[in-house]
Design a protein that fits this description.
Length: about 200
């Protein structure tokens, strides 16, 4: 049985997903394949990537307006038309994507580590989000995860190893190097790459 509070929260989420669906359709039109960066922050990495891979349609999502503004300024400065920055919570974005849109590559760089044990449920890498990603990933889609945080690296690797739709690629090379804002701050990097099996 749902409490009133739960029902309200679910209704609010459904409304946000619906609004995002409209925004995604407006931004992406007929596009059917995207490269997605979750938590794109200040946009350093995706603008560098999108400039190099100009034939790929790239989408960067983040929760924070000020970071998205900086991302958009970088995009405009470089005149890149293949990148779209959108304000979206990641699970809501994945639920809002139109059925014809598929993910070709997924990047998650320096996600919030939520270091305390009681916070771990807030980490993005959870079985249910890996299922959301797998459901709209093309076969062969790569998921590239990078963090400085040892425990989150272990956690993400374990969740990917446990998940039936993702195959971890030990020792796989990071496909495109460009420092992010947080990489510059934190220096350390630990990667985990997986492929949609
Ligand atoms: C530590 S920052 C890293 C930003 C960037 N990737 C970098 O390396 O500089 C994590 C980013 O993820 C965003 N974020 C956190 N949870 C998110 C979620 N559920 N959906 C979308 N973005 C999220 C935050 O707003 C923040 O900008």
């Amino acid at each position: 049985m749902c409490s009133k509070g739960q029902l309200w929260a679910e209704t609010q989420r459904a409304n946000r997903v619906e609004a995002l669906r409209t925004l995604i359709t407006k931004e992406l039109g007929e596009t059917d394949t995207i490269t997605l960066e979750i938590g794109c922050g200040h946009g350093h990495w995706l603008t560098a990537y999108g400039a190099e891979y100009s034939k790929e349609k790239c989408v960067g999502i983040d929760l924070l307006n000020d970071r998205l503004k900086k991302s958009e300024a970088k995009r405009l400065k470089r005149g890149l038309t293949n990148i779209h920055f959108m304000k979206a919570e990641a699970s809501e974005f994945l639920d809002a994507i139109a059925p014809h849109v598929r993910l070709a590559k997924i990047f998650i760089l320096y996600p919030d580590p939520w270091p305390k044990a009681r916070q771990s449920k807030k980490r993005f890498i959870q079985a249910e989000n890996l299922t959301r990603l797998a459901n709209i990933a093309l076969p062969g889609c790569t998921l590239c995860f990078r963090t400085d945080h040892e425990d989150y690296h272990l956690w993400a690797t374990e969740k990917l190893l446990e998940h039936p739709d993702w195959k971890v690629l030990p020792g796989a090379q990071w496909p495109f190097e460009a420092a992010t804002f947080f990489q510059n701050l934190l220096r350390d990097k630990r990667d985990c790459l997986a492929v949609r099996s």
